[in-house]
Design goal:
This protein is mainly alpha-helical. The protein has helices at 2-19, 25-32, 36-48, 56-60; strands at residues 64-66, 72-74.
């Protein structure tokens, strides 16, 4: 589990530097000790998953209602 936490911290830091600090991939790589390729992969994966970060209503294509236990009921 610690390795998984460390990887999540790395990705979080990469995305923070990319989108908040507006660093280049090369500068992020130098700051984090990761390769430029690893930085590019992390940013690309985040971009590809961007749709998963939208509100549930947007992902489902319409209004939804939360159900007990965390599920969603599409109306």
């Amino acid at each position: 589990m610690p390795a998984q936490r460390s990887a999540l911290r790395n990705i979080t830091e990469v995305l923070r530097l990319k989108f908040e600090a507006r660093f280049s991939h090369e500068r992020i790589a130098a700051a984090t000790g990761l390769s430029k390729g690893a930085v590019s992969n992390d940013v690309q994966r985040a971009h590809n998953r961007e749709g998963d970060l939208r509100e549930p209503d947007e992902r489902l294509g319409g209004p939804s209602r939360a159900l007990p236990g965390g599920g969603l009921l599409r109306e």
